[in-house]
Amino acid sequence: MSYKSIARNGDRYYLYERESFWDPKRRRTRQRTVRYLGRCDKNGRLIQAVKPRVERVYSATPAGPTACFYAAAKDLSIVERARAVLKVDLPVAQGLLALALNQVVYRLPVSTRLSSWVQDSLLPQWEKWDVSNPSRRGFEGTLDALCSYTQGMRKLQAGLEL
Predict the structure, then answer these.
(1) How far apart are CA 79 and CA 18, in angstroms?
(2) How far is CA 51 from CA 6, 37, 109, in A?
(3) How far apart are CA 103 and CA 95, in angstroms?
(4) Does residue 154 carry a pLDDT above 80?
(5) Which of 1, 2, 23, 38 could form a disulfide with 19 if both were Cys (CB 3.0 to 4.6 A apart)?
(6) Which long-range contacts (CB under 8 A, 24 or more apart) does 78-81 make?
(7) Nearest-5° angle of CA 151, CA 153, CA 155?
(8) How far is residue 78's CA from residue 94's CA, in Å, rounded to a whole number?
C-alpha cells in the first residue's frame, strides 16, 4: 500500500508517493519511493505537478530535412505549377512532389521502398493526400507525365518547362 510523503529541501517542499515493503535480509519493513509527484506547500498541496515522461517511443518520423525542403517547395508552389504546366491531376502533382523530396532527402528507389516512405512520412498530412494505397505504378505514371512521346515517337519533355 502506498502513501504520500512530504520532503523538505531548503525552503521548498516536495511530494512523493512511497510504499512500505518487507526486507527479508534485514528482517524488517523498509520504505521506497514509488514516484515523485511534484512541488508542494508544507501542508502537502501540489503547487507544480510533474510533467509526464514518455517511457518508450514506439515509432517516430524524422521530419527535419523533409520539412525544410517541403517548406521550400510550398514557397515555390511546386504542386500548383506542376498541375498548370503538365496539365495533370492533383495526385500526380503530389506524386511529383514526393519524388522530388525523396531524391533530395533520402534517394530511395521507386521500385521498392518509396511507397512505404511516403506512407510513413508527414507528406500525407501536410498535403491532405490520400496515400492509403500508393504504388510503384502510380509513381511511374508521375514520371511519365514529365516525359512522354507523341504519336510520331517524338519525345516531349514537359518536365523541362517546370
Answers:
(1) 58
(2) 19, 9, 42
(3) 12
(4) no
(5) 2
(6) 79/127, 81/162
(7) 110
(8) 9
Q: Which residue has the cell 501542508?
A: 43
Q: What is the pLDDT of residue 149?
A: 65
Give mean pLDDT, residues 86-109.
Answer: 85
Residue 67 gets the label, from left (phi > 0), alpha (psi -120 to 50) or beta, of: alpha
Cell of residue 95, nine digits: 506524386
CA distance 60 to 24: 44
pLDDT band at 139 (very low <50, low <70, confident <90, very high): confident
Q: What is the largest CA-CA distance in the chain?
A: 95
Q: Is the pLDDT of residue 30 over 90?
A: yes
Instruction: Give the Cα separation of 77 and 83 in Å (integer).
Output: 10
With 0.85 as the threshold, say if the pTM is over it. no
